[in-house]
Design goal:
Layout lengths: L6 H19 L6 H7 L7 H6 L2 H30 L4 H13 L5 H15 L17 H9 L5 H5 L2 H18 L7 H16 L4 H13 L1
Helix pairs in contact: 1-6, 4-5, 4-6, 4-7, 5-7, 5-9, 5-10, 6-9, 9-10
Length: 217
């Protein structure tokens, strides 16, 4: 079906409305019809028309921010590789800082962070909308650079995913805090905390339980 000439403006308004509403209430608590009304769309099913369903809209919302985050993270990873030394803290920064830039982008950034946090904290978390398996993706590159610096047991226990989820949830909460405009200390401390999570030793108890689970399987 052909899109109307002003369609891209309608699509943009729908995404902006979704960001605002998701930031306030979460991506699971807002209907597509509400988004259409908030965007001032003439047709109450405009969101369905443009995005088919909720997952399509969420994917489009994430994609709206993707290029900026990819550029920022690749630049940090380029600098890491140019330095030529193993540095978990630098890689933690490459995870945190591109996302933390969203704290300075008002409702749009807050909506992105809240949506991402919702995806990662579902009963069955998903990273599929982040396209981490795409060739050249910055998160795939980050994972590859980080893996040799972690204990194999930590890799098997999904330490990188748990760190990503922690970081995103903390940033989403921060984005909801009213009146805070200087995020430098918060972001620096978050990088430190992410470094600690990534670097934490796997205890003997955890190794034993991990071995028991493998034996059962």
């Amino acid at each position: 079906m052909a899109r109307p000439a002003d369609g891209q403006d309608t699509r943009s308004r729908l995404l902006t409305a979704a960001e605002t509403l998701f930031a306030e209430r979460g991506s699971e608590a807002v209907s597509l019809r509400e988004i259409g009304r908030a965007a001032g769309a003439r047709n109450v099913i405009a969101a369905q028309y443009w995005f088919s369903d909720r997952e399509g809209l969420i994917g489009a919302l994430l994609d709206r921010h993707r290029a900026e985050i990819e550029t920022r993270r690749h630049a940090l990873l380029d600098a890491y590789e140019a330095a030529g030394r193993d540095d978990v803290h630098a890689l933690a920064g490459a995870l945190v800082r591109p996302l933390a830039a969203k704290l300075d982008q008002g409702g749009s950034g807050a909506g992105y962070l809240r949506t991402l946090a919702d995806l990662l904290t579902r009963p069955e978390p998903t990273v599929a909308p982040l396209r981490v398996e795409e060739p050249g993706d910055s998160m795939a590159r980050w994972r590859t650079l980080l893996e040799p610096l972690l204990e194999p047991a930590a890799v098997d226990l999904h330490r990188r995913f748990h760190t990503l989820r922690f970081v995103v949830v903390e940033l989403a909460h921060r984005a909801q805090a009213p009146g805070r405009t200087d995020h430098r200390l918060f972001v620096s401390q978050l990088v430190d905390a992410a470094t600690g999570l990534l670097s934490a030793a796997v205890s003997e108890e955890t190794r034993r339980l991990q071995a028991q689970r493998r034996a059962v399987r």
